[in-house]
Amino acid sequence: MNKEDTERVKELLSAPKNIVIVTHKNPDGDAIGSTLALHHYLLKYKHRSTVIVPNNFPGFLKWIPGTEEVLIYDYHTEISDVRIAEADLIFTLDFNALHRSGDMETALSESSALKIMIDHHQAPDNYAKYMFSDIHMSSTCEMIYHFIDMMNDIEIIDATIATCLYVGIMTDTGSFKFDCTTSTTHHIIAQLIDKGADNSEIHNKVYDTNSYERLQLLGCALKNLKLLPEFRTAYTTLSQDELNKYNFKKGDTEGVVNYGLSIENVVLAAIFIEDKQEGLIKISLRSKGHFSVNTLSRDYFNGGGHTNAAGGKSYSSLNDTVEKFISILPSYKTALNNE
Fold first, then answer.
1. 184-191 long-range CB contacts below 8 Å, 24 or more apart?
2. Residue 12, pLDDT score
3. Which residues of the chain have pLDDT under 50?
4. What predicted TM-score, i.e. pTM, was given to this entire model?
5. Which terminus of the chain is less hemmed in, N or C, by CB atoms within 10 Å?
6. What is the pLDDT of residue 178?
7. Model pLDDT, residue 301
């Protein structure tokens, strides 16, 4: 966001307005953290702020300050449509194409509200009046910190805002181990801790509280893990029957794909999860080095994301989706083996 746009946004926020903050379908830690951080910031200036997410989100995020105020579009469609229609401004966070908002897409597209995008994914659509888009940022939460700084308001970040921001940065950097983590990221994290974010408690709440069934599901996924050494690739699957057997809850498969990537000499990992309710296979892809799973996902699996972390979907069966994945690997063999 250039200086001129920053000044215009600052002017827009100088008087109380009806503001809606939305994020993508299947919201993760960065989505929930960034929307709630911005929400708490806007409340300090007496804006009427409403956070709306397309569908439910994992239980390990529901302790974050403000989650009890979040409208879930799947459950609160009517009031959500009213808030969107009444909005003066709509912030879209952690996504850059309106179709990523699921069933909210129509309401957002038809809204006359001025839209502001804050996002770190590649290839943004041109729907927002003002765009703060930077693919080099670790997370949208890091971008919200910078946005607040652009508004000259770093000093009003309190423990609540700091906690929300810490969650998103921590989860999108894989606890600060991914390549997207920079010295600036660590500097911001230090500032958030100084402002009251309890780093140990946050980590424990997100990562260290598991149900027995979630660990059994992880065991199932690891048992299903397959290695394709000639392509430096590992993948695993979870069928709907396996999900049902271990009483799957949203968020239970978070991070499972990274186990494949942790295998020595593997640079590409995937997990394929059957969802019979939605009639599709959900795909998560991870990579090391310069191998772009964003490109692979966009070209073959109706998805996208970042160079080293992307998602996609398939409307074929679980077996057919896996076979398609394996069939395209020979065309990437040179790239995979050069990493």
1. 184/142, 185/138, 185/142, 188/142, 188/145, 191/145, 191/154, 191/157, 191/162
2. 96
3. none
4. 0.91
5. C
6. 86
7. 97
- Domains delineated in the chain: 3-207 (3.90.1640.10), 212-338 (3.10.310.30)
Say how far apart CA 93 and CA 35 lie, in whole Å. 7
